[in-house]
Each structure stands twice: as C-alpha cells, then as structure tokens.
Specification:
GO terms for molecular function: ATP binding; ATP hydrolysis activity. This is ABC transporter, nucleotide binding/ATPase protein (Nitrate). InterPro entries: AAA+_ATPase, ABC_transporter-like_ATP-bd, ABC_transporter-like_CS, ABC_transporter_ATP-bind, P-loop_NTPase. Keywords: ATP-binding, Nucleotide-binding, Transport. Belongs to the ABC transporter superfamily. This protein is an alpha/beta fold. The chain has two domains: about 130 residues, P-loop containing nucleotide triphosphate hydrolases (Rossmann fold, 3-Layer(aba) Sandwich), CATH 3.40.50; about 70 residues. The chain is about 35% helix and about 25% strand. Helix 2 packs parallel to helix 4. The strands form two sheets. Strands 5-6-7-3-8-9 form a six-stranded mixed beta sheet, with helices on both faces. A three-stranded antiparallel beta sheet has the order 2-1-4, with helices on one face. Strand 6, helix 5 and strand 7 form a beta-alpha-beta unit. The protein is globular, with a radius of gyration of 18 Å.
Amino acid sequence: MTVAISCQQVSKTYETRNGPVNALSPCDLEISPGEFVVLLGPSGCGKTTLLRMIGRLHDHTSGSLDLTPVEAGETTTGFVFQQANLMPWMTVEENVALPLRLKKQPKATRMETARDLCSRVGLENFTKSWPRELSGGMQQRVSIARALADDPQLLLMDEPFGALDALTRTRMNSELERLWMASGATVVLVTHSITEAIMLADRIVVMSARPGRIVSETRVPFPRPRGTQIENTPEFQAIAADLRSQLEH
C-alpha cells in the first residue's frame, strides 16, 4: 500500500513572544504514490516545517493537506531524523522492533521482523549490540530499519545523513535507494545537499529562503539504481549547476 500527498496553498505561521513568524508561504505540492521526492533548500527555509506538516507532527495554518492511501486503511508513516534517537538501554534488534512492540505484536513475530530488517541494512552481525557500540552511520541504519519495521506507506526523512562524513553519506544514499526500491513506499526527504538530492530523487522541489516557497521542480532522468559514476556525467553536472544557481538566487 502506498500513499499520495496533496498540499493546496499550505502555509505555516508560528506565534512567538515577538509576534508571528511566517515560516512557510502558501505552497502547492502533489506527490504521487511510490514517488521519491526531495525538498532542497537553504537552512531555515521551511523544508522541515513542510515535512512535519505532511507527517501530522505540526498543524498547518492555512490551506489543505491530504494523504490518500491507494488502498483503504490507515496511513502508516515512518520517520527518520538527523539524530538516530535510539533507546540506549535497548539492543539494535530491540530498537528496530520498538514500533511493533508498541502495536503489541507477539515478541517472536516482532523479533523475527527486526532481525530481517537488520540483515537488509547490513547489520545482521550487530543485532545484540548496544547503540553506543555503533558508529554514526550504523546508528542511522538502525533508525532506518526501525522506520521500516511497520511497513510504512509513507517515509519522511529530515536530513538523516547530515551529520555523517562524505564517504559514509554516499554509502547510506545507496542503501536508502535500495531499500526504497524494495519497499515501494512514498518518500519525502529533506536535504541541503545538491548531490544527495540528484542521487536519490525522482523529483527535486527547490524552496526559497524564509518565508519558504516552492520556486521550482526538477525531474531527475537517471535510471535506477544510480551509482556514483553518474556524478561525472555532463547531465549530472548540468542539473547540479542549475539547482545551485536557483539556490544562490
């Protein structure tokens, strides 16, 4: 099951002690079921605000925002943030199984699912490890596995690899693409990395500085799976240059 997203003139204003702050100008955005969309823009432009409104973590101030499952039923959403936010007193497999535990699935069933997901993200040898024993990249793999545990139709990711070194980030992009292709989920990812956006997205939505507004949408033409070799192609460089120009202006 996948989900479509429709944002019509969605905006967000925060009330502060110094008066209202317009974080997001009215935005129109349509996302198809199973699509991988990246929100690209400078820090503070409202990318995270829009993502959190899509995930029902924040209310929108005006406009309409609808999530429509392709099949009847409740929309299941997985979240991955920049910090892995793992439970330090739980093992890797226990962290991955947490969403299923909260849904009161039988222990044997949820642990089997957790071990399968650990294998899918390359952590089959670390299921009994504690979060403190893992590198930053490994912790983020646990976070992604946990987000996938409930087989979400919608996966929302807020700069999940922003704190990682360049090499680890590249590897995680490849792993995320592989997992998404297997899951078929609708994905919305926030980043300020042009390279990451091109490597992962079906479509890149560029946002302006605050108050954020959508200034363009770019479809990425490269076939999947995408390897790092495409970064050296004239087509990749042209898209990157165009996106960089939009962000600068």
